[in-house]
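User: Can you help me understand a structure? I only have the sequence.
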Amino acid sequence: MNRNFLVIALLISANIFAQNIAVPEELKPFIMPGYEVLDVVKGDLNNDKKQDYLLVLKTAGEDTFSFDNTEWDAHRPLLIITRQANGTLKTVAVNNELIFCKNCGGVMGDPYQGLVIKPGEFIADLYGGSSWRWAETFTFRYDAIKKNWFLQTHKSTSFQSGDPEKTMNESVISRSEIGDITIEKFTTHYNADSSTWKVKSAKAYFYTSPQIGSKPKKTYLVKGNELVSYKQFRNFVQCSFTNTKGTVTSGYILKKDLQLVESRKPTGY
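Assistant: Let's start by predicting it. Here is the structure, written out as tokens:
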């Protein structure tokens, strides 16, 4: 996507989903008690040439929730509903984490920007923040062999709203690095890690995205530096490092340049 277009789109996008949703009659039995419909998207989710649905639900009364309400961060279930051979519909997967809560966008309001279905895949867009803005795009693709939808790519964007061109950061993570994460198992904390590592190479460069063969940043760590990762991928770890001057550098470092000191997984997720 053109960067200038992206900046404009994000700056003007507060929330595009303040509209009434028409719910097909055949979907109404899938609305769970205590929930209302936030969005409905129709398309071929599994490449069988049949029309399926993505159904996004919200807690009834969600629009009145504020931060002092115990349900301010109530889940928004996403139901994958596919057309069966006999023409009926069936819920084949549910996820409660992909569609962020109404108040999770901060001052920008509801972060949900919509779902798009393409043949055999679907894309979720979310956007929020305050002075610092963020956008997350998750693409799930159907695997015909494993008969499930896997996280194919995760694109993260952030920028300072006062100077988006100079502060724009983008990273793209692909399934080849992520591993196999189904839509049912997906959370935003996927691949979470809190292991300790020590740099074993003379220099360990930071990368903008965990992509083998991509060009590294100019910033690097030196042999003996220690760090704690907060996500671990096939060939990279995601981390930040604070030097003696208090400067923080974040990004991805190749695992081949690191020595594992202590393997540890975070708790509470």
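Now, to help you interpret it: The helical segments are 3-12, 164-167, 175-178. Residues 1-16 have pLDDT under 50 and may be disordered. Let me know which part you'd like to focus on.
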